[in-house]
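WARN  no MSA supplied for this record, continuing single-sequence
INFO  ligand: magnesium ion
INFO  echoing inputs
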Amino acid sequence: MDRQMGTLVSAVLVDPREKYPKPPYKRQTQEWPGLASKMEPKPDHGETSYKGSGRLIGRKALITGGDSGIGRAAIAYAREGADVAINYYPSEEDDAREVIGLIQNEGRKAAGIPGDLRDEAFCKALVNQAVSVLGGLDIIISNAGRQQTAASLEEVSTEEFDATMKTNIYAPFWIIKAALPHLQPGSVIIATTSEQAYDPSPDLYAYAQTKAATMNFVKSLGKMLGEKGIRVNGVAPGPVWTPLQISGGSPMERVENFGSKTPLGRAGQPAELASIYVQLAAEDASYANGQIYGSSGGAGQP
Ligand code: NAD
Ligand code: MG
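INFO  complex generated
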């Protein structure tokens, strides 16, 4: 229900099947890591639609991969009143600038901190820089990820396997460890895992196992840090329309039919997940700890 001019009016019902573009999607490829601004259709990250209601006023968030895709929940965070630092790979500066502009439009502090998460020294510097620009930290969203499709095990090089482990497993370890001394009780950590953690695709041998690891560390850290008053949760998306998929993450047949096997019959859009990241960070979710929240259009796990 919506309150307008002192009267209650019905919220508009929107059919979730029809809300966004449906497959077949245009086949397209970009060089890794890709830009949201060059995708067709452009993903919706809530730029024009997300409305805040003060749920994160005064909070200080660091979001990895905040330039595009699911990490653009950064926009929702700013509209809920949070100051936000985003990390991204240096070649994603264009996407990052757009997000930084949108955060600043809300009158919130924004920091753009480019760098390669596969480097431990950078991960530590990232946390320190976020703390110094924002004046502290109480939300860590470990969202950046590497996904590269490979049809056979022979095609998975040691370099690619290592890059996937560094980005998806080591970087969260380095970042969370560096952030811990700054996190007071009431702070939260949110990790992006995947339905791949539970039901891996054969072409995502390296990636899928990192997402199982992410799901697992959410549960171990939820126990370890819950005792210190820090909540740790994860989000497990299904197919979501982001640069990850078209910059090596999926074969073109999957891109073309992305999300067609879900009951809603289409890929999800990043904007449809932003409110989950807001909810998990919000103070009123104070009993949510060690949990994984799915958003997959009705297929997949959890
Ligand atoms: P995305 O491409 O928009 O975001 C991924 C981000 O990871 C990039 O923007 C980039 O900034 C960052 N990144 C990757 N390697 C990096 C490195 N070495 N250094 C610095 N930054 C690096 O795509 P997305 O789909 O929004 O991905 C966000 C998260 O969602 C990932 O963890 C991904 O595994 C997960 N996920 C996505 C889907 C999906 O269908 N899109 C499904 C399940 C889970
Ligand atoms: Mg990006």
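Residues 33, 67-68, 88, 92, 95, 243 surround magnesium ion (ligand 2) (CB under 6 Å).
INFO  checksum written, moving to next record
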